[in-house]
Amino acid sequence: MLVAARRRHDDTRRRATDALRRLDAAGEPVSFAAVARAGGVSRAWLYRDDAVRSEIDRLRRPRPPVRARPVAEQAAADSLRQQLETARTLIAELRAENQQLREAVARKLGKHRASTTRDPA
Known about the structure:
Layout: H1 2-26, H2 32-39, H3 43-48, H4 50-60, H5 71-116
C-alpha cells in the first residue's frame, strides 16, 4: 500500500515538474492552474507540495525585460560601425590612388627607358 502511494506521489511530481519545464521553456505564463492543466494534476496537490509550490512561485515572479543593449552601448556600437565604414571608404580611395600613381610611374619609367636606349643608327 505505501509503495503504491509513493509511486503515485512520484509520478504526480514528475508530471508537475515536466509541465513546469514545458511552460517555462515555451515562454508561457506559469500559474497553479496552468501547471495543473498541463501536468494533469490537481491544484490542491500543487499547493501541498512545498518544492513544486516554491518553483511555481519563483517562475510567477515578473522577470526584468530583456533589452538587446543599453542605449549608451548601442550608440557606441553605431559610432564604431560608422568609423569602420569611413575607414573602409578611405582605404578604397587610397588603393585607387595608389594604383593610378603606380601606373603613372610605370609610364614615366617606360618613356625614360625608351629615350635612353634608342639606337642612334
